[in-house]
Design goal:
By secondary structure, the chain is α/β, with parallel strands linked by helices. The protein has helices at residues 71-77, 97-110, 124-134, 152-159, 184-201, 222-226, 273-276, 325-339, 364-375, 402-411, 441-449; strands spanning 4-10, 16-17, 33-39, 86-91, 115-119, 141-144, 163-167, 204-209, 229-234, 241-249, 257-263, 266-269, 288-295, 298-310, 318-321, 346-352, 384-386, 389-390, 396-397, 416-420, 434-438. The protein folds into 3 domains: 4-39; 63-271, Rossmann fold, CATH 3.40.50.300; 275-449, Ribosomal Protein S5, domain 2 (2-Layer Sandwich). It contains 11 helices and 21 strands. Helix 8 packs across helix 9. The longest helix has 18 residues, at 184-201. The termini are far apart.
């Protein structure tokens, strides 16, 4: 071990510099470089060489999974927990991360497996109060309040747990570094040691991560690259529903979402998610349309609400909640160009019910329908669902997984659905739905808005 050197590390991207800079050369953010003292390690003389191995010579090992006790979390994980995986769970303060992991720990402990819960933010008494509220009384869940990551190996040898929960990764530290817990160097060093423990022992590690004010995981991006699974725990504190969204998964798809509901007894699974996004619609209300968004491996029927009102002096406002605001501006531009609607003189507000954020392009037609309904003061049929991606030239493009969407639409009692033309559906399909095929925006306005 040599003497310490001083360097400046960006807290957002991990870019290193020998001198302080106002603007990070890596990510371009201002005032993100922090000074850290790092020891210089002398290279070891005992270097062990490794030899490359052919891909065909690597033995095939079946991928084993076990349940976390929550079907929605298993869905986001790709079917269950993989032994030896490192799972990072991020979310806003008070969203329910600790509650979720404590419930997962209770289910795993009921399968006669040991769980080690390392908390750097809460005391043993606080954890005990939460467990009493959730009705958790397991003797196989062990609590640890030691934030020194260098001592974790000895605890693992003594207890031999199957699952380890670290709440949170920003509170643990390594004695090899002089920087404070939560710094870029500490996050990188501690995560590297935890990764080594997970791969060598085939234990599962759950890491709780803080998020910034922008909703991204705090710390450098290298933290997300080092773990196997990254899950965002989203939701509004004023709503009881919580959304699990996978953004990285080395063992499954990253398109899955899971829906949970917070109650006085903890988090519960939502077995029929489509119904929570649909309210009892008044047939006389304008600016409301239902879309079938495909999230992961299942369709969700969600209500879109639009409000078009006369703009005051200055520029017209465009506000969107639940979709990208640029996407709203694009759809408004298409409506103005193709049909000459004077939307530039109106404020347009759009909201996705339920507090979820949608990225599926098939909801474009539903957004346009809600805007036109509010603009023309004409309510849409309450039993109609809209499907289709809107092109810049006004054409309505086909959407994938149409059969699954139609089955969900029929299941919830809707009678009519507007879909892109060329889908080989004529009039009424096998599910009893009245199919309306359109090719472009002109057909949509003539058939739906004028018909």
């Amino acid at each position: 071990m040599g003497k310490n050197i001083t360097r400046f590390v960006c807290r957002d991207c991990g870019q290193e510099s020998l001198k302080w800079l106002g603007k990070c050369p890596g990510c371009g953010n201002w005032n993100t470089l922090l000074e850290e003292s790092v020891p210089v390690r002398t290279p070891s003389r005992n270097v062990r060489k490794t030899h490359p191995i052919a891909l065909s010579d690597i033995p095939k090992t079946p991928l084993y999974r076990f349940s976390s006790g929550m079907g929605e979390l298993d869905r986001v994980l790709g079917g269950g927990i993989v032994p030896g995986s490192l799972i990072l769970l991020g979310g806003d303060p008070g969203i329910g991360k600790s509650t979720l992991l404590l419930q997962v720990a209770d289910f795993i402990a009921q399968k006669d497996k040991k769980v080690l819960y390392l908390s750097g933010e809460e005391s043993a008494g606080q954890i005990r109060l939460r467990s009493q509220r959730l009705g958790i009384e397991s003797s196989l869940i062990y609590f640890l309040n030691d934030q020194n990551i260098d001592q974790l190996g000895s605890y693992l040898q003594e207890l031999e747990p199957d699952i380890v929960v670290i709440d949170s990764i920003q509170t643990v530290y390594s004695e090899n570094l002089s920087s404070i817990p939560g710094s870029v160097s500490q996050l990188r060093e501690c995560t590297a040691k935890i990764t080594d423990m997970a791969k060598k022992s085939e234990r599962v590690f759950f890491l709780v991560g803080h998020v910034t004010k922008d909703g991204a995981l705090a710390g450098p991006k290298v933290l997300e690259h080092m773990v196997d699974v990254v899950i965002y725990f989203e939701g509004e504190k004023h709503f009881s529903f919580r959304l699990l969204r996978g953004v990285k998964n080395r063992f499954g798809s990253t398109d899955e979402i899971g829906l949970l509901e917070m109650s006085g007894l903890g988090l519960k699974e939502v077995l029929d998610p489509s119904r929570i996004f649909l309210s009892a619609k008044d047939p006389t209300v304008c600016g409301s349309a239902v879309v079938a968004s495909f999230e992961g491996s299942r369709p969700l029927l969600i209500e879109m609400q639009a409000l078009v009102s006369s703009a005051g002096p200055g520029y017209a406002r465009r506000m969107a909640s639940g979709i990208d605001q640029n996407r709203l501006a694009l759809i408004i531009a298409v409506l103005e160009k193709r049909r000459g609607f004077n939307l530039s003189a109106y404020d347009v507000y759009l909201k996705v019910t339920g507090g979820v954020f949608l990225r599926d392009p098939s909801i474009d037609l539903g957004i346009a329908a809600a805007i036109l309904s509010s603009y023309r003061e004409r309510p849409l049929p309450v039993d109609m669902v809209f499907l289709g991606e809107l092109g810049l030239s006004g054409e309505v493009r086909p959407v994938p997984f149409l059969d699954a969407r139609l089955k969900e639409i029929e299941k919830l009692g809707f009678k009519r659905v507007v879909i892109p033309g060329g889908a080989n559906f004529r009039g009424r399909n096998a599910n009893g739905l009245d199919i309306i095929e359109i090719k472009n925006l002109d057909d949509f306005i003539d058939i739906v808005m004028e018909g």
